[in-house]
Design brief:
By secondary structure, the chain is α+β, with helices and mostly antiparallel strands. It has helices at about 35-40, 65-75, 105-110, 115-130, 130-140, 175, 185-205, 235-240, 245-250, 255-270, and strands spanning about 5-10, 25, 30, 80, 90-95, 100-105, 145, 160, 170, 205-210, 220-225, 230. Helix content is about 35%, strand content about 15%. The longest helix is centred in the C-terminal third of the chain and has 21 residues, at about 185-205. The protein is elongated, with a radius of gyration of 37 Å. The N and C termini lie far apart (about 100 Å).
Length: about 270
């Protein structure tokens, strides 16, 4: 093109053999051929004495590269394209599961198409797991709540749940099947749990030194009325167990003062 003294007026230069280009020859004539005709050697029809047939220009697309990247991000994936051509061109994508493919721009932007591999996997799971929704509903019922969703889309999909306290939230089917449940109830239960442990310790003349409660099997730090400090599970304390040092001290006869001093030292140091 430059060798003939002409230039391409399209933004971005050459767009491909099938794309329409606006060309200007060295005499200032302009026409709109397909890229392949220029590559084949055809040039200015007016200079060649031929009537100029104006090829209709395609309407400017309302979409662009930024829309492709935004739509891919909405699906949790990526678009690897660096240049926008037209909505009918194909662009490379990657989904959240790592599948890669190419798809027409308009299919993704206007029709909502996304990863075929993921879609096939979900459809396959729906076909082979007829009791999938029933299992999720059963897991919710065992927690004292309900699954509010009415359609099954696989265990990796999100469902709506309602707990017995009236809290609603969305969670993956897998999480609930594996024992996960209402986070608000769990946080409130942890708060009530540590308050109960502080109350138990006070009833026994001691203290619970921990500030957070996780589960009945996670150890907390305790202090008895003699100042002994130890770690024990809430379930063990609620079952009646208390200071192990005091338990040993109570088995040592008063005459064995040299043995008792070892366990009384904490109380004397505290005084």
């Amino acid at each position: 093109m430059a060798a003939r003294g002409g230039q391409c007026l399209n933004d971005g230069g050459f767009l491909g053999g099938a794309a329409i280009h606006r060309i200007r020859c060295e005499k200032g004539h302009e026409w709109t051929p397909e890229g392949r005709s220029v590559l084949a050697g055809y040039w200015c029809p007016r200079c060649a004495g031929k009537p100029t047939i104006s090829t209709p220009q395609p309407k400017a697309s309302k979409y662009g590269l930024i829309d492709l990247h935004r739509k891919a991000a909405e699906h949790g994936g990526k678009c690897f394209a660096a240049v926008w051509k037209t909505g009918r061109d194909h662009y490379p994508f990657e989904c959240a599961a790592g599948h890669r493919w190419e798809a027409m721009g308009y299919k993704v932007l206007k029709q909502g198409n996304w990863c075929r591999a993921c879609t096939d996997a979900r459809l396959g799971e729906r076909r082979t797991d007829a009791e999938g929704l029933a299992r999720i509903q059963k897991a919710a019922h065992e927690q004292g709540g309900r699954c509010l969703s009415t359609a099954y889309h696989g265990t990796a999909a999100t469902y709506r749940f309602l707990c017995k306290a009236g809290h609603e939230w969305d969670a993956l089917g897998n999480n609930v099947l594996q024992g996960g449940w209402c986070r608000r109830c769990r946080n409130e239960g942890q708060k009530l749990g540590i308050e109960a442990m502080h109350a138990v310790a006070r009833e026994r003349g001691g203290k619970c030194l921990s500030e957070t409660y996780r589960t009945g099997k996670a150890k907390l730090k305790w202090e008895c009325h003699r100042g002994h400090v130890w770690d024990a599970t809430p379930s063990g304390v609620k079952a009646g167990h208390w200071c192990p040092s005091c338990a040993i001290l109570n088995t040592i006869a008063p005459k064995n003062q040299h043995k008792r001093r070892r366990y009384e030292a904490a109380a004397k140091a505290a005084d």
